[in-house]
Write a structure and sequence with these properties.
The radius of gyration is 12 Å and the shape is elongated. It is built from four helices and no strands. The chain has about 70 residues and is mainly alpha-helical. It has one domain. It is about 80% helix and about 0% strand.
Length: about 70
């Protein structure tokens, strides 16, 4: 997730702290749209993969074609 935060910060010209808040807002929004069991899996995945290149950033890359 750190990679996604840094990329958002750089591309949007905002602080990493603000980018991190934005990532969490989007993540919470997405989880609200998912069935509960899938939202739990997202939480688990982000928690275990946070800070690695194979974590949430890679999912975002796949979802948004980057």
């Amino acid at each position: 997730m750190e990679e996604l935060i840094k990329e958002m910060s750089g591309k949007l010209g905002i602080s990493e702290e603000t980018a991190e808040k934005g990532v969490h807002i989007v993540l919470e929004f997405i989880k609200k749209k998912l069935p509960p069991q899938m939202a739990e899996q997202v939480d688990s995945f982000v928690t275990t993969q946070s800070g690695t290149s194979s974590g949430f950033g890679s999912i975002a890359d796949k979802l948004f074609g980057h």
